[in-house]
Design a protein that fits this description.
alpha+beta; Hypothetical protein af1432; 3 domains; binds fe (ii) ion
């Protein structure tokens, strides 16, 4: 029998998961990587003091740590299981003599693209990791999964969207290859780890509103589609439609789009035409599903058909349009604009609820609210401990008690090493309760690195 208790197994697996996740987002020397790494190494050393090896992996696709099976794993454990699955191995054996440096190299390998069992062994050997050995069937191909950091993916999406907008402004209709590639990566992420993807949609870049908004709407639409059980192809369509939903703005005069003051009625009408311009552009884009043209045409038509274009009010639009409308409104509401202070994520959810059944399809709003939780990922909150934190993961078992990253202590000092806390643990213990919500704080990718994970 192993000396590892269930509690210990869960702790070590969670630490492994945070180390790998940290490495996807932060440089190796960052405290968010170093802190869990140190603890993981000391926990491993403790186990390997009592026994010569321990095994971690998958059996019948269920995660195990020594003899403990995790049939209902916590989110971090489920993520670790997925990473092992991605590597195409059944698991790893950790041997006596394991060092912290070997563990760090092992986690760095886990972050990289999957490479199959033989390649895993080879990679570990090449990196000088002698005390971790993969176990699995020879020659089995791993699933094609991309373990690129979520932020890298976001940056690529921004570049791709900007590229397409620029081409169209210059009178060319580009193909959408780059957007499609990055959307495909995001689709895997939407299925595997929706909260991380949703966290990215909290990035607000006020200087680059249109591109930033387009990417966010794509992400929100995909996440909502994933929670509705959509398949990969449908999710891809949602992502592309989201990123291109305002592409028609390229044909609206810049002076009108960027006008700081109140718009005249004629200018308002001109802006409204972006929906039909967008539909026209998409129809001509090689490689884009032509059905998305209609979806984009209707993104402001509204569920009660009181929107625009007026000539389209009698037409029927599909579910993609309903999804786009909700995703579009949520991102627009939570972003600071010349004419609007941003709603907090919570206030934006309340606003969507008010408009449910009239402006928006009721079922879509309901699903969206369910997905975002009462305190959506990225919401900045004050706790009754007087600490300030950012929501990083909803808690489906108790919407009032998500997982948060504490960024400021009770005295108002920024923590050099923010830490994640479950506001309510599995055994019902409260760490703290949320007492107030602030404005969104994620204003740049750097903020996302600091506050989200
Ligand atoms: Fe729009
Ligand atoms: Fe929009």
């Amino acid at each position: 029998m192993s000396s590892v208790t269930l509690e210990k197994a869960e702790r070590v697996a969670t630490l492994f998961s945070s180390c790998i996740k940290g490495m996807m987002l932060y440089p190796p020397a960052h405290p968010s990587v170093l802190q869990p790494l140190r603890e993981a190494a000391s926990q491993c050393a403790e186990i390997l003091f009592k026994q010569t090896e321990f095994k971690v992996g998958l059996v019948d696709d269920t995660f195990f740590f020594e003899e403990h099976l995790f049939t209902t794993p916590s989110a971090p454990v489920a993520e670790l299981a997925q990473l092992i699955r991605n590597r195409g191995v059944d698991g790893f054996t950790f041997l006596k003599g394991l060092t912290q440096q070997e563990l760090a190299r092992f986690f760095a390998i886990m972050v990289r693209k999957s490479s199959g069992n033989a390649a895993n062994a080879e990679e570990l050997r090449r990196e000088g990791v002698e005390h971790i050995v993969p176990s699995g069937k020879e020659g089995e191909e791993p699933p094609k999964e991309n373990a690129k950091g979520a932020l890298g993916m976001y940056g690529e999406a921004l570049d791709a969207v900007e590229g397409v907008f620029r081409e169209i402004e210059n009178g060319r209709i580009p193909d959408c290859g780059k957007i499609i590639t990055v959307v495909e990566e995001m689709v895997s992420s939407a299925i595997r780890d929706t909260p991380t993807l949703l966290g990215l949609s909290m990035i607000k870049d006020y200087d680059n509103y249109t591109y930033n908004h387009s990417v966010n709407v794509g992400i929100l639409a995909m996440a909502l589609g994933a929670s509705l059980g959509f398949g990969k192809e449908e999710l891809k369509d949602l992502g592309v439609a989201g990123m291109l939903h305002d592409i028609g703005k390229t044909r609206v005069a810049k002076e009108i789009l960027n006008k700081p003051g109140k718009l005249t009625a004629a200018e308002m009408e001109e802006i409204k035409r972006h929906a039909e311009f967008g539909a026209e552009i998409i129809k001509e884009m090689p490689g884009v599903n032509p059905a998305l043209s209609d979806a984009v045409l209707g993104h402001h038509i509204q569920h009660d058909r009181k929107g625009y274009p007026e000539w389209g009010r009698q037409r029927s639009f599909g579910i993609i349009t309903d999804i786009l409308a909700v995703a579009d409104a949520y991102d627009a509401l939570t972003t600071l604009r010349v004419y609007q202070r941003p709603y907090t994520p919570k206030a934006a959810i309340d606003r969507l609820r008010q408009l449910s059944g009239t402006t928006f399809d009721g079922r879509m709003v309901e699903k969206f609210v369910e997905m975002m939780g009462t305190y959506p990922v990225g919401t900045m909150v004050r706790l009754d401990t007087n600490e300030v934190a950012v929501v990083v993961r909803p808690n489906p078992a108790d919407r009032e008690a998500p997982a948060v990253r504490i960024i400021m202590d009770a005295a108002g000092e920024l923590l050099p090493e923010p830490r994640v806390e479950q506001l309510k643990t599995a055994d019902g213990e409260y760490y703290a309760r949320i007492v107030a919500v602030f404005e969104p704080v994620v204003r740049s990718p750097e903020d996302a690195v600091r506050f989200l994970s």
